[in-house]
Design goal:
binds flavin mononucleotide, 14 helices
């Protein structure tokens, strides 16, 4: 990577493209593509990121920014900053210490960690290694006995919310993975730590399509009652992209929604999550928490999402690039850097705490389309 010299890079100094390039150089092509890739023509993947470039920050001056507070509490989780690590399965492909490393890195930065049901490590291994506030992410499985047991295990291991991902009735059409699979380079080395217990023959490996085959495509809003009855944990719904579904989520008694299109890995040709944030946040109207994921790459992206109504953001691929490059240390450095830079951006913006942040701090960027209509309209 140009400009980095011979020394091991300080991850905090890398811009996202450099981080991604370094990770690419250290991973097999099939693993890089599994993480970086998305569904279809990857329009949603690209749009999630480029949506942030449509906005500009609008700073205020001569404010007292001697104390800038970015600590926050989301569903009882006390966080150093409004940041979570997204649930992402199969992290052993990226680094031998897998989710144990990413969770301990998150703990060092004081941000939230969401463990995937499809993780390589088990939820108990992650819990015993990390003190970070953590939630457990699930899919709705046909086998309700396994689901109930997973919830009970999450409660016993100290997870403080169940994050139900609802945008995977089937797995998206991911060209890159399918090409690598056809070449025999991918798909035969997955480990599902959470499911070892349910294997009767002692094998630890499951076919790649295990989770897809196990998913219940018939679930509807009324099935949330069953999940809620399994524990006292709050339920977070991940994969909401519309006002209608936000309203249904509020009515169904969930505690938070994650505005997410699965990082563009499921349905292609969607709007960016940032573009639908306002419609979700204005429907939620502070009755439930709103978290945004997809394309968050820089501290200024986080500020834009918060200003447009998110209570927190969740970060996916960049964390796996940091994991690939530097394991737990790399993830901790990356997230710590983000927390510190978030504080710097708010200081420069003239914002002393997260409550002050509002649409007043964001302009839509002047593009060739809206220039004809005069100056950028205020939101
Ligand atoms: C390699 C990888 C694995 C993922 N696995 C899961 C998963 O097991 N469960 C889930 O809800 N989302 C999963 N996701 C989606 C992320 O939680 C998140 O929605 C997305 O990565 C956010 O976009 P970003 O990567 O642009 O930050 C995965 C994403 C990646 C990149």
């Amino acid at each position: 990577v140009k400009g980095l010299g011979e020394r091991a890079p300080d991850i905090r100094l890398l811009a996202f493209p450099q981080l991604e390039l370094l990770a690419r150089q250290s991973l097999p092509a099939s693993v890089f593509d599994f993480v970086a890739g998305g569904a279809g023509d990857e329009l949603s993947v690209a749009r999630n990121c480029s949506a942030f470039d449509q906005f500009c920050l609008r700073p205020r001056v001569l404010r007292d920014v001697s104390q800038v507070s970015i600590r926050t509490t989301i569903l009882g989780a006390d966080l150093s900053a409004p940041i979570f690590v997204c649930p992402m399965g199969q992290q052993a492909l990226v680094h031998a210490e897998a989710e144990v490393a990413s969770a301990t890195g998150a703990a060092r930065a004081g941000v939230g960690f969401i463990l995937s049901m499809g993780a390589s490590a088990s939820l108990e291994e992650v819990a015993s290694a990390s003190s970070a506030p953590r939630w457990f992410q699930m899919y709705y499985l046909r086998d309700r006995a396994i689901m109930a047991d997973l919830v009970a295990r999450a409660v016993a291991a100290g997870y403080s919310a169940i994050c139900l991902t609802v945008d995977v009735p089937v797995v998206g059409f991911r060209r890159r993975d399918l090409v690598h699979m056809a070449n025999g380079e991918f798909g035969n080395n997955q480990v599902f730590g959470n499911f070892n217990k349910y294997r009767t023959n002692g094998a630890t490996r499951l076919p790649l399509d295990f989770i897809a085959q196990g998913h219940d495509l018939s679930v509807t809003w009324s099935d949330l009652d069953w999940l809620r009855a399994q524990s006292d944990l709050p339920i977070v719904l991940k994969g909401v992209m519309t006002a209608e579904d936000t309203r249904a989520a509020v009515e169904a008694g969930v505690s938070a929604v994650i505005v997410s299109n699965h990082g563009g890995r499921q349905l292609d040709h969607e709007q960016a999550t940032l573009e639908v944030l306002s419609e979700v946040a204005s429907t939620a109207r502070d009755r439930i928490a709103v978290i945004l994921d997809g394309g968050v790459r820089r501290p200024t992206d986080i500020v834009i999402a918060l200003a447009l109504g998110a209570d927190a953001v969740s970060i996916g691929r960049p964390v796996l690039w940091a994991l690939a490059i530097g394991g737990s240390q790399g993830v901790g450095d990356f997230l710590n850097g983000l927390v510190e830079e978030l504080r710097r951006v708010l200081t420069l913006l003239g914002v002393a705490n997260l409550e002050q942040l509002s649409q007043d701090y964001v302009y839509p960027r002047i593009t060739s389309q809206n220039r004809h209509h005069g100056a950028a309209k205020r939101l």
